[in-house]
Amino acid sequence: MILEGEEGEAKRIALKTIVKVGEVLGATRLVKLKRAHISGISYKNIGDEGLEFIRKLVELNANVACRTTTNPSAIPVNTEYLPVSEDFERRQKEIHSYLSTMGAELTLSCIPYEYSPPSLGEQIGWGESNAVLYANTILGARTNREAAPLTILEAIVARAPLIGLRTDEGRLPSCVVVVDKKLESEMKNNKIAPSIVGYTIGRVVKNGVPFIKCKVYGYIKEFLAGIGASSSIGMVHLDGISPEAEKATRHLRNLEKITVDYKEVRECEELITMSFEEADAYLLGCPHLSPSELKSILMYSTSTHRDISVILTTSAWVYQKFKQLIDKLRKRGFIVLPGTCLVVAPLENLDIKRIITDSAKAAYYLSSQGLEVSIVPREVILK
Ligand code: F3S
Asked: Domain locations in the chain?
């Protein structure tokens, strides 16, 4: 009925596209989705073509058919902290307004698992790489790394092709990664950020579903985001942590074993970082900071005076629910940018050339935009 247009033109186009993608990938049927997360909503990234695509869907009366959250946008909730041109702001807000008209929640965040957590085995339609890795690896939900335009179409019909990580076979381990003990202890002692270890694993493994033997000691989402930034991996089995890891151990025999050591991580770090005397700013919040992380940053820092700005990125959802916390952090001298991230924001409007972060994902994308970036553990930044 949907394909014959009985439920409207937007749904017909959305389902037709999803079926076509499924056919190309070899799916035999579709699955129903309870949740979708629309990525690619930053005007800086999608430009007028992306804006036009979303506008067309709204003109065809598109509505989301399942709970739908949204990725960070190019402007923060309070634009005074990141000035953009009037025209740019108007276009970004147009995108917000279309998504809202369709029924999507303007959470403007890359960590939808914080406020719309799927359950074990639940089929969801997410594309943001860190969120996909977290949902599959930590929550046991099921999604592929969907392309951004597909996430909006999947939200409209609440359907996705049954393929890849949505199937039992697609979630079987493909290799075993062993992180050496020296590296684990460097992470534990805050000498190396977990995100760069994840980034190195992704760079070495590239694809598939690695079974990883490594104690991460906190910062799991940063570690997973690192993997996603350097590979096409959408799920890993973290030994002792992932809900499906125990079952996966039955399939490890005969798999290739890859060891990642300290030297390899340092070599990898050199590819995306630079050493410099003084930074223009520090950045925390890639992936976005959760309310509990923001609270611990507030507790950790006592000084209100900073020689170098510390930028914290978090969601519009956190801003709406924890406004007092944001205000306290701002009074403590932090620059808090809710609803955006430096990778999808127009950086040219900030006078920043050298940045220090705890995130390998941010380092990778910001260095590819011409910034000089260095990675250090969060505890060192907050000291
Ligand atoms: Fe999120 Fe932006 Fe990093 S979308 S994962 S904060 S690059």
From this structure: 9-166, 172-271, 273-382
The confidence score (pLDDT) of residue 351 equals 85
| Domains 9-166 and 273-382 in one fold | yes
What pLDDT was estimated at residue 218?
86
In angstroms, the CA 218 to CA 198 distance is 13
What does the pLDDT read at residue 8? Answer: 97
Using left for φ > 0, alpha for ψ between -120 and 50, and beta otherwise, residue 5 falls in left
Residue of 39, 107, 108, 288 best suited for mutating to test ligand 1, as the one with most atoms within 8 Å of CB: 288
Instruction: With beta carbons less than 8 A apart as the criterion, state whether 190 and 380 touch.
Output: yes
Taking CA atoms only, the protein residue closest to ligand 1 atom 1 is 287
Q: What pLDDT is stored for residue 176 in this prediction?
A: 98
In this prediction, the residues of the chain whose per-residue pLDDT falls under 50 are: none
Residue 335 confidence (pLDDT): 93
Dist. CA 327 → ligand 1 center (Å):
22
Please give the CATH topology (third level) of the domain spanning 273-382: Aconitase; domain 3 (3.30.499)
Long-range contacts for 81-87 (Cβ within 8 Å, ≥24 apart)?
81/335, 81/336, 81/337, 82/337, 82/340, 82/345, 82/346, 82/349, 82/350, 83/349, 84/346, 84/349
Packing angle, helices 43-59 and 86-101, rounded to 10 = 40
CA distances for 150 relative to 143, 156, 249, 252, angstroms: 12, 10, 33, 33
pLDDT recorded at residue 222? 97
